[in-house]
Amino acid sequence: MNYFLIYFRPTGRMQSRPYVIYAFLMQIAFLCSLNTVCAQTAEDYLNQPFLERLNNDSSYMRLKKKVVHEFVNAQPGRWGEFIKGVSEDLKTTEKLIAFTFDACGGEKGTGFDKELIEFLRQEKVPATLFVTGKWIDGHFTDFLNLTRDPLFEIENHGLNHKPCSIDGESEYGIHGTANAAEAFDEIEANARKIEAITGHRPRFYRSATAFIDEACARLAHELDIQAISFQVLSGDAIPHTPESVIEENVLRNISPGAIVIMHLNHPEWNTCEAMRKIIPRLRQQGYRFVNLNAFELIGKNGRK
Ligand SMILES: [Zn+2]
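That is the input. Now the predicted structure with zinc ion docked in place:
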């Protein structure tokens, strides 16, 4: 720890109190730059103050103004999970599967399925985790832990877990973003939050509920972010779905390149129990598991 003082032994005038204090502060600054002492804290990144800081950041606001201007008179287009501009599969013919797990956050979605994460680690199953800013706020230490594990890819599930709409659509009773400005913050502010914490900008965005309009998919594309949904709905999000039903949903609908949607924020659901059955059966069928980031993605309904 004391590299600085080992190499800079104070002698003579350097033993004075102001110099020692100065040397101590310099040492702290040096160690902070190595991220060894000044650990990141949740308070630095909480949604509300983080967004307020972005609202005072001229480059963020310039980009927001430009993008919002482009969409101010745009038509929302189709609303759904499988619309133009949204990807659902890996572009591959190999027997590869991408498991994705959403961490939604908010009033009813703040849990963390540690058992599931431990199972994925134990079985060395890579997974892509779509996290919201809200979920990060509630699980900062767990989030940091996940970001440091190369098994997991971190992607964007929106700042406040709102379905992405430029005109205030809702889905499953969850209000979507009201306009292009809010859609921009939902996507871009969470991308910047994840990048600020992890050092990596997410490439993919799955909106809350996976519902999105065509304008929002284009808006994400403007930000160099690909909107995605899924090919295989595991059904784990319907409370009390038995593990056998989740297992059957996945095994019946799987095909090479499929993106499977599941959740990691409800330990009381049967996601982990189902995965314990699904993984060995898919391995028996010759499937391997991958993250999204090494692949080009494709969608059934138009542009990638
Ligand atoms: Zn969600």
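Residues 3-33 form one domain.
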